[in-house]
Write a structure and sequence with these properties.
Layout: E1 2-5, H1 14-26, E2 36-41, H2 55-66, H3 71-80, H4 89-103, E3 113-118, H5 133-155, E4 161-167, H6 171-177, E5 187-190, H7 191-194, H8 197-208, H9 213-223, H10 227-237, H11 244-252, H12 260-264, H13 269-278
Parallel strand pairs: 1-4, 1-5, 2-3, 3-4
Helix pairs in contact: 2-3, 2-4, 3-4, 5-6, 8-9, 8-10
Length: 279
C-alpha cells in the first residue's frame, strides 16, 4: 500500500494525479488484463461520495468488471441475498469481495492490480441533525478510520491487489497509518516534498497555453512551482472578455512585483499577488 499525502489545500493536484494514474492504467493496451481493479474518489461536495456507504459496493462492481474471475461469485452473492447492498460495510466486504476472491482457483497466478482511493480526508458522515462542530469532527475521523480499516482488512488476505491512497495528512489518518500493524504494509510519500513542482508547472502551461518559449519560462519562474497560482494564471488568460496577450503582458510586468514582500509573507502568496494585479 502506498499512502500519497500532501499538506497543500484543494486545487493543488492530488485528485488530478489520482485521475491521471487511473486513466493511464485503464488505457494500457499491451497487457491482456486490466491493471486497474477499481477506484473510489471521495468528495465532500457529493452526497454519494462524501461518506463510506457506497465504498465497498462500488469497488465490488468495478472488480466484477475488471477481474472477470470474480464476476460469477459476486453475482451469486447478490442473487442469494439482494439485501447485501444494505448490510454493514464489514458484511459487504466479506460477501462481495473477500468471498469471491477466495473462490477463485489459481489465485496465486492472478496478476496484481491497482486500487486507487482518492480524497480520503473528504470522507465524512453527514449527520444533518448534528449542530455541534465537535461531533461533526468526530464523525469525520470515525468515517475515515473505518475506510482505512476496511482497506487493511482486505489487504491482510494477500490478494493480488495494491492500494494507492491519496489524502491530506490529517492527524488521525497519519496516526492510524503509522500505527501497528498498519504501518508494516504502508509506504508513505509526501508528493510535495518529492515532486519537481517547477517541471509540473511547465508541463501544465505547455498543455494549456503556448506564449512562446521565453515567456513560458518566465511564467514558470514567476509561479515558483505553485500549481494553484499557475492554474489561476491559465483561468485569467482564458477570460473571453479580455485580450490574452494584454493579460499576459500584465502578468509578466515586473512593476507589479512591488508588493512581493507582503505577498511572500502570507499563505497563498502567489495567488494573492496575481489577484492584486487583476484588481
Amino acid at each position: 500500500m502506498v499512502w500519497l499525502q500532501g499538506a497543500s489545500p484543494a486545487g493543488y493536484g492530488k485528485s488530478a494525479v489520482a485521475q491521471f494514474v487511473a486513466d493511464d492504467f485503464e488505457q494500457q493496451e499491451d497487457l491482456d488484463f486490466n491493471p486497474l481493479a477499481g477506484s473510489f474518489f471521495f468528495s465532500r461536495a457529493s452526497p454519494e461520495r462524501s461518506n463510506p456507504a457506497r465504498f465497498i459496493i462500488t469497488l465490488a462492481y468495478q472488480f466484477a468488471t475488471s477481474i472477470p474471475e470474480l464476476l460469477p461469485s459476486i453475482e451469486d452473492a447478490v442473487r442469494r441475498n439482494p439485501m447485501i447492498l444494505n448490510k454493514t460495510l464489514g458484511v459487504q466486504l466479506q460477501k462481495l469481495i473477500i468471498g469471491p476472491f477466495r473462490s477463485v482457483k489459481g489465485l496465486e497466478e492472478m496478476p496484481n492490480r491497482l486500487v486507487i482511493v482518492d480524497g480520503l480526508d473528504e470522507c465524512i458522515n453527514l449527520d444533518r441533525d448534528a449542530k455541534v462542530e465537535k461531533q461533526y469532527a468526530q464523525d469525520q475521523e470515525r468515517a475515515q478510520i473505518r475506510v482505512l480499516e476496511l482497506i487493511h482488512a482486505l489487504q491482510s488476505h494477500r490478494f493480488p491487489l495494491s492500494f494507492l491512497i491519496f489524502t491530506r495528512p490529517e492527524p488521525w489518518i497519519k496516526a492510524h497509518v503509522e500505527s501497528t500493524p498498519f504501518c508494516d504494509n504502508v509506504q508513505g510519500l509526501d508528493m510535495y516534498r518529492t515532486a519537481d513542482n517547477l517541471k509540473d508547472v511547465e508541463l501544465l502551461f505547455r498543455g494549456e497555453i503556448w506564449p512562446g518559449e521565453e515567456r513560458l519560462q518566465k511564467l514558470v519562474e514567476k509561479t515558483r512551482g505553485d500549481i494553484l497560482y499557475a492554474k489561476t494564471i491559465i483561468w485569467d488568460l482564458e477570460d473571453p472578455y479580455e485580450d490574452p496577450h494584454e493579460r499576459l503582458d500584465l502578468i509578466l510586468d515586473p512593476s507589479f512585483d512591488d508588493g512581493a514582500d507582503l505577498a511572500h509573507s502570507a499563505p497563498f502568496s502567489f495567488v494573492y499577488e496575481h489577484y492584486r494585479q487583476i484588481l
